[in-house]
Structures are given as C-alpha cells and as structure tokens.
Design a protein that fits this description.
Elements (H helix, E strand, L loop, with lengths): L10 H12 L4 E6 L6 H8 L4 E6 L6 H15 L12 H13 L7 E6 L1 H4 L6 H11 L7 E7 L2 H9 L11 E4 L5 H10 L6 H11 L3 H4 L8 H10 L8 H7 L6 H11 L7 H7 L5 H13 L3 E4 L10 E4 L2 H10 L14 H17 L1 H7 L7 E8 L8 E9 L3 E8 L9 H18 L4 E8 L7 H6 L2 E3 L7
Parallel strand pairs: 1-4, 1-5, 2-3, 3-4, 10-11, 11-12
Antiparallel strand pairs: 6-7, 8-9, 9-10
Helix pairs in contact: 4-6, 7-15, 9-16, 9-17, 16-17
C-alpha cells in the first residue's frame, strides 16, 4: 500500500493508482475533474515517492512561458543535466526529458506527471503532437514508466486525449474522473481537521459548498454552518466571494455562453430541455449549445436526466453544481449579506428543497444500497406530464426503474424536523401516482419512496401513501 495517510476517501481511485504501480507494462493515466476537486493533491500524495518529473501548465501562459517553466522543473528534478537555454519547442523539450529519464535506474515504476495539460497545449504550441511522439516512440516502450496527465477542463481531456483520432488514439490505458467528495467523505475530511457537525448541519454545508476539498478548507472550527457560509461567501475576503467567474473562466477559453446556460438553469428547479435552453439562454443556433452542454456535463456542473418515455428531446438538464446554484439564488442579490441569506423565508425554503434533491440524486448509489437494490439492474429517469384545460399536470424528478418489475417513485423533502404529509400533499401524491400510471401505462409495481432528513410523521397519510421511507442516514452509507 502506497497511500499517504492524509488522503481522505478516494478508495476506488486508490485501487486504480496502486494497480498502475504494480503493472508490468507502461501505463498512461488520464485523470480529470472540475477545478479544486483534488486531482493534483491525490496524484502528488499517492505517488510522492515515485514521481521523477512533474510539470504544470500555466493559466493563459504563452508557449515560451510554459517552456521556461518546464526548464525550471527539469533542472530541479535533474540537477546533473542542467538546461541553460530553455528549449524553443515542445518536441525538443520532451526529447531532453526522455534522455534524462533513460539514465534513471531501478525496475520500480517511475511516474511522470503533467498537470493541467490543457494549459500546456496553447495555440500553435505543438504540445499535443510532441507529447504523442514522446509517448509512442519512447515512454510506451518502457515498462517502468507511468505517465499521468491531468486537467480541470474535462471536455478537453475527453475530446483531445481520450477520444484522440491521431497519435494518441487508444493510447490511454486507464482514466479516472475525479468527483467531489460524497457527504460521508466530506464528514471524514472535516473530522480530520477536528471539525464536527451534526449530519443535518453537514447537509446544509454540503448544499452550498458541495464536496470540493478546497472550499471545505475554508470551514473554521468552532463556527456554525451559518457563520461559516456567511464568512466564506459574503465577507469581503471570503474564499468564494469572487469565485464564480474565476471558476468557469479557468476551465473554458470563452465562458460567457456557458454562464448564460448556468444562469438559465438556476432559475428553473425542474430543469430545462435543450429547446427550452435555446430560448432561455438566448442562443441563435443549436450547434454551439450542443458543445457547451457537453463541456458543462463532462465538467460536472450540470446533469442530464432522461425522461421515462426515453425521448431525447425531452431530456432535462439540471444545474447540479452546489455553489453555482447558491450563487444565483443569494449572492447576486444586492441586499445579500453574511447574516441574512438564511433568513430569506420562502426563497430559502425553495432553495433548500432543490439543493436537497440534487444532493440525493448525486448520492444515488448510497440510496440504492439503503433500498437494498444495489444488486438489481436499474435505470434512473424523470417524468413530466404537462397540464391541460381539463387535467392538472405532474412531475416526478427522479424515479428508479428496476429490472425486477418495480419502480421507485422518489419524493425528496428537506426539513429541520420530521416531515408531515398533510391533506394537501397527500392528495398531490395520490394524483401524481395515478397520473403516472395512466400516462405511461406501466404494469410494474410502484413504490412511493420518501427521502427526508428526519423521516416522516407517522400519520394516516404516511401509512396509506408511502411504501418506503429513508432518512438522511442513508446518504452517509
């Protein structure tokens, strides 16, 4: 086991990293994920004893700047082969690197780490072509080499490297899409720094910061969740006070259109179809939107939920980045401040409901384990039936269609006490289930499934309508 003791969670990723060290062949690992999710930390911590060279791209740096940075790193790792004049091309630079590594002895794996690869591949730099040559003609022939490439622009890694049609076609041997911490991992991460919240408060924190390690580093011990969010998001020196524009600009060359999409999705809790987004985000053509949706999805900012009838045109895009949703609900308001965001009444309640839905959908594997259906093949869908002059419409944000002839119709409710199903909501639940059967003509067994923070009040409506009730404990499973 090579793991650094300070790595929290990441159990599946660690298994992959360890297997690559034990591999008898050359390996090329692509690791990608959104900004601040901990990609660099994971690689540097786990492979700290194996890294023989590391180089990181510079945001908006010219090719000459990138090559100077390469030279600085090269001289630090290979002091006996000092480069006096920086190379003028990437091909020259990587040839120098291959010569230096050739002299390294020992049969154990040697790790070469290129961080923020998209930033290295500047316009007309020739980096990707030179890197392809480096891998194909040198690194791939050395069974003691593990080359790791990393990037925050997930769509760039997917399109330019993983799905490369040129010299890197089918050359990636393993890939890791690093996701934010789960709520369980978030709890473990904060506990490592002796910060402890009750599970309910931890969910409130997660619904703002998500499982982003860099954001969680700003949480201060001895302060409540409300105090921490106020300080991190609203104080003049708060870590996230100016994060929003930097977040998208650092990932995408031109982020204005991407932000238009994010803003449009932030206004609609149910999500938007592609055609609805075209209108809401004021796009003139659909081609540009297709690319933007792919980039935002790959980077983890939005999610795509297919409708139960499986018609692509009705697929819903939902904003699932916690901080972006919070930003548009509270941080863009002129009167927002450290102390009043959580006292916004109905506005706060609506945000809690949607943010909790997103949290549950992100923790679908934990919920399926709690439902004891993790071993049953299933697909996740949404369902929406618009209303008419004679009939009310209905929507189910999330349902689990199972191979054992059952469907879980999931209802997610966030509250600070047990949630009570009153007469009005009971009528809505019954009508929704009835309309779903009528509209889909399904013959599967339906289970109305409740996911709440503290469970449901045991009244006649709960007994008659709800088949399965889970609490927030399931999310920490």
């Amino acid at each position: 086991m090579n793991a650094d003791s300070t790595i929290i969670g990441r159990e599946d990723e660690i298994k992959i990293l360890e297997s690559l060290l034990q591999s008898p062949r050359a390996e090329l690992l692509a690791i990608y994920g959104r900004r601040r999710v901990g990609k660099t930390y994971l690689i540097r911590s786990y492979y700290k004893k194996q890294i023989v060279f590391s180089c990181s791209g510079q945001y908006q740096g010219k090719t000459s700047d990138q090559l100077i940075n390469f030279t600085t790193q090269f001289n630090a790792y290979f002091p006996d082969r000092q480069i006096v004049v920086p190379p003028t091309t990437w091909k020259e630079a990587l040839v120098l690197l291959s010569h230096a590594i050739f002299r390294l002895e020992g049969r154990s794996k040697k790790v070469i780490f290129f961080d923020e690869l998209p930033w290295l591949d500047t316009h007309k730099s020739g980096f990707l072509s030179a890197f392809s040559y480096f891998w194909n003609e040198y690194a791939s022939l050395r069974n003691d080499l593990l080359v790791v490439i990393c990037g925050s622009a997930a769509s760039w890694i997917i399109n330019k490297v993983v799905n490369n049609k040129g010299g890197l076609h089918n050359r990636i041997t393993r890939q890791i899409r690093l996701l934010p911490f789960s709520v369980k991992e978030t709890k473990q991460y904060l506990a490592h720094f002796h910060i402890h919240f009750e599970d309910y408060d931890l969910l409130r924190l997660y619904m703002v910061l998500g499982g982003i390690p860099h954001y969680l580093n700003a949480v201060q011990r001895g302060r409540s969740v409300t105090q921490n969010i106020g300080n991190i998001c609203f104080s003049k020196d708060g870590l996230l006070a100016r994060e929003f524009n930097n977040l998208y600009a650092a990932l995408l060359n031109s982020s204005e259109k991407h932000i238009q999409v994010i803003k449009a999705l932030a206004q609609k809790n149910k999500g938007l179809t592609r055609n609805e987004l075209l209108k809401a985000a004021e796009f003139e053509t659909g081609g540009a939107l297709t690319t933007i949706l792919e980039e935002l999805t790959e980077s983890g900012f939005i999610g795509k939920v297919y409708p139960f009838e499986k018609q692509e045109k009705n697929a819903l895009y939902r904003l699932q980045d916690e901080f972006s949703l919070f930003y548009y609900r509270f941080m863009t308001a002129g009167d927002a401040g450290e102390d009043d965001w959580s006292n916004a009444g109905h506005k706060y309640t609506i945000w809690c409901g949607y943010a909790f839905e997103n949290l549950c959908i992100k923790h679908i594997s934990q919920i399926k384990r709690a439902l004891q259906i993790a071993g049953i093949r299933s697909r996740d869908y949404s369902w929406y039936k618009p209303g008419s002059q004679t009939e009310d419409g209905a929507q189910i944000d999330w349902l689990i269609d199972r191979a054992d002839n059952c469907i879980n119709l999931c209802e997610m409710k966030f509250s600070n006490t047990e949630y009570t199903i009153d007469k009005k909501y009971a009528k809505e639940l019954a009508a929704k289930k009835s309309l779903f059967v009528k509209d889909t003509r399904t013959r599967k067994t339906l289970f109305t499934t409740s996911i709440t923070t503290f469970g449901l009040t045991d009244n006649e409506h709960r007994q008659m309508l709800v088949d399965v009730s889970l609490t927030m404990e399931a999310l920490f499973g």
